[in-house]
Design goal:
Number of strands of chain B: 12
Structural class of chain B: alpha/beta
Strand content of chain A: under 5%
Largest interface: A-B, 26 and 38 residues
Order of helices and strands of chain B: EEEHEEHEHHHEHEHEEHHEEH
Order of helices and strands of chain A: HHHHHHHHHHHHHHH
Distance between the termini of chain B: 51 Å
Mean pLDDT of chain B: 92
Shape of chain A: globular
Helix content of chain B: 25-40%
Radius of gyration of chain A: 21 Å
Mean pLDDT of chain A: 83
Oligomer: heterodimer
CATH superfamily of chain A: ABC transporter involved in vitamin B12 uptake, BtuC
Number of domains of chain A: 1
Distance between the termini of chain A: 15 Å
Largest sheet of chain A: none
Structural class of chain A: mainly alpha
Chain lengths: 353, 264
């Protein structure tokens, strides 16, 4: 299987060279179109099925009041949160994997997800159980607490592993260690929580885009409007960094600044995505690696990873809504897809090593 | 072009590796840094290439403290190849060499025809134009090292620093790489500073040798002056006979056998 893949990857030196330049752009275009298509179709699905033309009419500013309400107020925020959270998580993963030079690294390694989980669960358990907090305040509070928890944990991980630069091995070890400690705290909170709160928290931990409104979609969209261009602007510096720290420094790259910027953007992207959609697992790990293989590049392609993340999370949410009549957290589908892939990747890596 | 170390002291984990070292690189010359393992020759090259910052003293490039110059500007004057670099799996030779244009690119200035021409020129110079679209990891050791040298050439600097460019290569490939270095010097008058392990190859390919011992320059000058029975004994603790290289007329170091060293 490995031999076969090598053969099809490199038919002849010359065509391989040309294909290497064309393929990434083609993959990006296809995946981007796929994500947009998923978004439009997702707007048609629900208790009141709508046709694609009616949804498109609403999107260009036409359509009757009821249709507009269903599409723009009830469905659009949820679909948007799914697409944007997926894009943010996958882009964060691509950045992290490039900086850490490890295909198994993901934003989870930076401590963001576990920190955000602790923040969110603390808000849900503390807010819902002990005090009578209004639903609106709870909703505004959970994303905020998640963002704060995620950023705090990441600062701790990066701070503890920083040693004259971002040392990849230290980063991964510190990240994994801190994540288990933080996850233990989260588990403890779930044990002592009231049953209702524990259920709410579990749904959040699995990652869910159900009943998301503009209150979640707008902050996420604003964050991504800043962070995605910032991430994409790192493409050229990262293409130099992948040659190794010393070669990169020789080529005039500010190695530490680049690594720090990429890590910071990845952390903020993850915090934004997770605070809006919960701890959707495996997207940041799996999507960059899939895109790397599809595009035939030497490191995860940034833009294509973002598009792929949107497609995976948007598609998973759509599939669940089509297949099940009850709400299934979208994180379960992405994890169901991601876990086998992770195992396959590990086995394959051990075989080639 | 001028590059010099002025009174440089540099420690690694608290252990001093370079001690108050002074050295000026000869312009338009091929200089080889030689010395026993752990003498600090690689550290010296890395300090000169601003990969390591001295504890005290300065590295001066064209009259400026190298640590005060923007790294991009340094990279336009000085090309640097670390020891045994590894290309990402599947990266083509052309892509690798293209990375050498980085110091000339910016957020606003992308890859232009000038850069493409510089890459083609570098590929032709190292003789890899035909293999440009091959992945680097499929090349032979010598070709691979030539690809890396092409990357540094694409930087279009007058000065090249090469850290043991012949490591892990068999003799044929070592000569292949060093012949290339000699050609670069002969064609374009480039200044080359390289760390080499093999004394005889250093004597053959460098016009100037710098012999480092315990973090200091023990001797510097033309090969015949630096490689003497005395210096070999002092620096390497070896008794050796110095013959004349029949091809170049330069020195040829032949270490004595154990019996001759009187250790039997």
């Amino acid at each position: 299987m490995t031999a076969h893949a090598t053969r099809t990857d490199r038919p002849s030196a010359r065509t391989a060279g040309r294909r290497r330049r064309v393929r990434p752009a083609a993959v990006l275009a296809v995946v981007l179109l796929g994500a947009l298509a998923v978004g439009v179709v997702a707007l048609t699905v629900g208790d009141f099925p709508l046709s694609v033309p009616r949804v498109l009419a609403v999107l260009v500013g036409r359509g009757d009041g009821a249709t507009r309400l269903i599409v723009l107020e009830l469905r659009a925020p949820r679909v948007l949160v799914g697409l944007l959270a997926g894009a943010g998580l996958a882009l964060a993963g691509a950045l992290t994997q490039t900086v850490v030079r490890n295909p198994l690294a993901s934003p989870d390694v930076l401590g963001v997800t576990s920190g955000a989980s602790l923040g969110a669960v603390a808000a849900i358990v503390g807010g819902g159980g002990t005090y009578e907090v209004s639903d609106a305040l709870l909703r505004a509070g959970v994303p905020l607490c998640a963002a704060v928890g995620g950023l705090a944990a990441a600062t701790l991980v990066v701070g503890l592993s920083w040693r004259r630069g971002l040392a990849p091995t230290r980063l991964v070890l510190v990240g994994v260690g801190l994540a288990s400690a933080v996850t233990a705290l989260t588990s403890w909170l779930l044990v002592v929580a009231k049953v209702n709160d524990a259920t709410t928290a579990s749904v959040w931990l699995a990652g869910s885009v159900s009943s998301r409104g503009w209150a979640q979609a707008v902050p996420l969209a604003i964050a991504l409007a800043v962070l995605v261009p910032a991430g994409l602007a790192l493409a050229r510096p990262l293409s130099v960094l992948e040659l190794g720290d010393e070669v990169a420094a020789g080529l005039g790259l500010r190695v530490r600044a680049t690594a720090f910027a990429a890590a910071a953007v990845a952390v903020c992207l993850t915090a934004a995505a997770v605070s809006a959609a919960g701890a959707i697992g495996f997207v940041g790990l799996v999507v960059p690696q899939i895109m790397l293989r599809l595009a035939g590049t030497t490191r995860p392609p940034l833009a294509a990873s973002a598009a792929g993340g949107a497609l995976l999370v948007g598609g998973a949410d759509l599939a669940e809504r089509l297949l099940f009549s009850w709400e299934v957290p979208v994180g379960l589908a992405t994890a169901a897809l991601g876990a086998p892939y992770l195992i396959w990747l590990l086995i394959r890596q051990r075989r080639t090593a | 072009m001028s590059l010099a170390a002025r009174n440089v002291t540099l420690s690694y984990d608290g252990r001093p590796v370079l001690r108050e070292l002074d050295l000026s690189i000869m312009d338009s010359q091929v200089t080889a840094v030689i010395g026993p393992n752990g003498c600090g020759k690689s550290t010296l090259l890395r300090a000169l290439g601003r990969l390591l910052r001295p504890d005290s003293g300065r590295v001066v490039l064209d009259g400026h403290d190298i640590d005060r110059l923007p790294t991009r500007q340094v990279a336009r004057r000085l090309g640097l190849l670390p020891q045994a670099p590894v290309a990402p799996a599947g990266m083509t030779v052309r892509d690798l060499v293209g990375r050498g244009r980085n110091p000339h690119l910016s957020f606003l200035r992308g890859f232009t025809a000038t850069d493409t021409a510089a890459v083609a020129d570098a590929l032709a110079r190292v003789g890899l134009a035909d293999l440009a679209d091959r992945p680097v990891d499929e090349l032979s050791g010598g070709q691979r090292q030539r690809a890396w040298i092409a990357m540094v050439l694409a930087q279009q600097t007058d000065l090249l620093l090469l850290d043991e460019p012949t490591t892990y290569l068999d003799l044929t490939h070592q000569l292949e790489v060093l012949d290339l270095v000699a050609a670069l010097h002969a064609d374009a008058g480039r200044t080359v500073l390289m760390v080499l392990h093999d004394l005889n190859l250093a004597a053959r390919y460098a016009g100037h040798l710098v012999l480092v011992r315990d973090g200091q320059v023990h001797a510097a000058g033309p090969p015949a002056q630096v490689l003497t029975t005395d210096t070999i004994a002092q620096v390497f603790g070896l008794r050796a006979t110095i013959l004349t290289d029949p091809h170049t007329g330069g020195p040829l170091v032949v270490p004595d056998t154990r019996q001759h060293r009187g250790e039997s």
